[in-house]
């Protein structure tokens, strides 16, 4: 699958910028991914996507990725199909810009998170907006040496870039483990919700 990702966009898209169930902070402490997904399910126009969009939520950002209908390209070459998909994505982006800004602003006010948009069409996935968030950490010398090795080898440009590379690599190679962990967290949340109400 061809995935294209752009950097943070100007305010026209970024403003108001397999989802796991997790408790998240926001407008009304204890907002869950299910609540976010339910809100967007009711708020998004029904003719935008061919199926329910994928929604990812963390402390800072809500990411919505929907699927667009693939263009009719029977008998076309791979290059022609890719170009047709990219053209449909561009059309969707331009035609829905004002509505997406409106919905994003409402969501940002309600959930206190930035909203990012992306779409998939045929084999092409493109993110319109992304949020880059600094994450502070403390590392001991053996851990710093791992980052320095990646920098010295030219794999990464800096320690920060090396750390991001390690996180991406871990995510790619531990996807099944992370999926089980998220499922366990969902179960914990369900059990907690079934308990006695707090005083």
Describe it for me?
This protein is an alpha/beta fold. It has 2 domains: 2-127, no CATH class; 141-194. The protein has helices spanning 11-14, 33-43, 78-95, 97-111, 141-152, 159-173, 175-194; strands spanning 2-5, 23-24, 31-32, 54-57, 61-68, 114-121, 124-127. The strands form 2 sheets. Strands 1-7-6-5-4 form a 5-stranded mixed beta sheet. The radius of gyration is 20 Å and the shape is globular. The termini are far apart.
Overall shape: globular
Question: How many helix segments?
Answer: 7
Low-confidence stretches: 6-12, 15-29
Number of domains: 2
Residue fraction in strands: 15-25%
SSE pattern, N- to C-terminal:
EHEEHEEHHEEHHH
Numbering strands along the chain, what is their spatial order in the largest sheet? 1-7-6-5-4
Could you tell me how far the N terminus lies from the C terminus, measured between alpha carbons in angstroms?
Answer: 50 Å
Q: What's the Cα radius of gyration?
A: 20 Å
The description of the largest β-sheet is: 5 strands, mixed
**Overall SS class:** alpha/beta
What is the strand tally?
7
Mean pLDDT: 81
Helix content: 40-55%
